[in-house]
Amino acid sequence: MEKILRECSLNELYKKEERMKREIQELDSNMQYLVYENHSKFIKASETIREMKDDFQRLEDDMTHLGSRMEDITTASGSINRALADRKREIVKLCGVHHLLKKLQFLFELPSRLNKCMEMGFYAQAVKTYVKASRVLAQYQHMPSFSGIQSDCQSIVARLKSDLKNRLDDPNSTTSMTAETVDLLLALNEPPSQLCHQFLDNSQRQLEKDLAVIAAESEKEGERGAMDIVEYVNVVCSGFLANLSLVIQSCYDMFVKRHLMSTEKEELKRSEVAQQTLCEFIHSLMAQCLANVRRKLEKESVHLDSGQLVKAVDKLSGKLQAMNRLLPAAGLEHKSKQLTQQIAESHTSCHAQRLRQSFSDTLTSVRQALVTARRPSSQQDDSLNGHCTALYASIKSGLESSLGQLKAFIEPTVSFSDKRQFRETFCLCLVREGIVISFINHVLDTCHRFTETGDDQSPSYPPSLVLILSRLVHDMDRSTICYLVSYGDERFPPREQGPIVATPTTQLLRRAGDVAQELLDHYVKVQGQVISQMIRKSVETRDWLHTLEPRSVRSGMKRVVEEVTLLDKQVATLYEDGAKKEQGSEGGSRHTYSYTQGGKGYPYSSSAMDSSLLSNIQKLFYERIEVFATVEFFKLSIVTGIIKIVLKALLECVRLRTFGKFGLQQMQVDSHYLQLYLWRYVSDEQ
């Protein structure tokens, strides 16, 4: 208020007063509204409070009455205890006598009880009854009455042991019945070592029946009624492995754990011997079981159904891990890892084989399609790009499909995939090196084999196939290899460990570049040899000394130009044109020079130097042409390489022949024809 009075003007004070009045009126109206709305609730609440007060008053009266009654009961109980104190001692004494008489009655009835249990086959009840009374009988055996009872019981127990041993040897006894029988014999103080061997021998007979079922199913493949791999593993886990687990648990509890709880050296030694015997027993049976399971799983690997295979291996691995926890000394965890690794190796090997076979089949179909149209044609040229695309698709889609299938091995839901050693080995060795890198190398090796034809041998495949493969490998060098390797590394991150080192991508790229270059050079060489053969026949089969005066170009030269034209179209479907070399003022195929002695094209006269010197000077300034030089990945360079081989062959054939006047003129006509039509197909007109 002091601040308002000090800082505000009179008008502001009036306005603030008016605002406060309005707020007070609003609050009053709101309060009236709330009271009106909740009037009935206030009335009901008041009535409820009044009723509660009445109820609490009655409750206090009842509690007071109850307290007085409890005091009366306490007084009466005290008077009763005082009255019966003397008799209580007598009652306790009589109860002790009664309990003793019941024990004596139990001992006197023990032989009949044992016989009755024997007759009804309740061996466990008979053993429990005898063990319960044996200590008392041994303590009072010097008394004649107890001595007779003990003698009768021992004869009955001898028969009981005999029956139990017979049941132990019964081939129809289940594993659980055998374990129960051994437990009863141990309770009757039979030698543990003998029982251990007998227990394992009888258990082995039962387990061998399960092994026979597993072996029979593992031999079935594609037969009617044969189980799939998941059903087969379920049979193994619920049958043989479940029964073996029961044997391990029972044997460990009866012969190993019981002695481990003792502090005596002799008992501990017995425990070690029993454990060693049990481990040998497990190793013998597991070797047979895993051999059958491995055979079945490897057969399933061929079907390339990674999901089903991983599901089966995961279930089997989980069961072996659980069994390993029962007896770690048996080393079942190591066997589980070893089996998983072997199945993974077998399955990835099948995928790698499938990829190689798929590429081989595609390559064979392309080869057959090209063979059916051996002579180059426009229709065939249009299909070259399609064949190259089909080969590329078989590589890319096949590898992506296989990696997608194998992804099931490292899914988070798979129990064995979280093992670091398995994951690293699987991703780096089996997938990256065993499938991706191996398949790329296989493609490069397959393509490289098409360049290994000897010089004196004609290829058994169409040269256009080499051209397709050169383009395929060239694309792999430029992009495909990097894509495939990175695709695999993203889905199966490799981690280098120890001596295992990942193959660098640069090594593959360098090799792909070399193979692509060799394929392209080989294609140029083969096509050049094919056309050169035509030229050789056309030159060698003609009598150049006695030929007629030339009227036109020979058909052989026309055929050469036609072949080069078809090859140019063929190469154009796979490679870009490229750029021609720019010609200087003194270069060019259409420039002619007269280098004859004394000719106008040469600045020196005959008096300056002789013809031999002139020839040598010409050779000094002559630009040498590399006939078999490496070609580039462009159409002009490829066709130029072929034409250089063709012209070199023509030059060599002419050099070995002797020409008459008309023969020389015919060759001049042919050469001029080639000059007119071939210059457009070369990168360098020189």
TrEMBL record:
Residues 10-69 form a coiled coil. Keywords: Coiled coil, Golgi apparatus, Lipid transport, Protein transport, Transport. GO terms for biological process: endocytic recycling; Golgi organization; Golgi vesicle transport; lipid transport; lysosomal transport; protein transport; retrograde transport, endosome to Golgi. The keyword Magnesium does not apply. Acts as component of the GARP complex that is involved in retrograde transport from early and late endosomes to the trans-Golgi network (TGN). GO terms for cellular component: cytosol; EARP complex; GARP complex; membrane. Residues 6-332 form the Exocyst complex component EXOC2/Sec5 N-terminal domain. This is Vacuolar protein sorting-associated protein 51 homolog. InterPro entries: EXOC2/Sec5_N_dom, Vps51. Belongs to the VPS51 family. It is found in: Golgi apparatus, trans-Golgi network. Component of the Golgi-associated retrograde protein (GARP) complex. It comes from the Eukaryota.
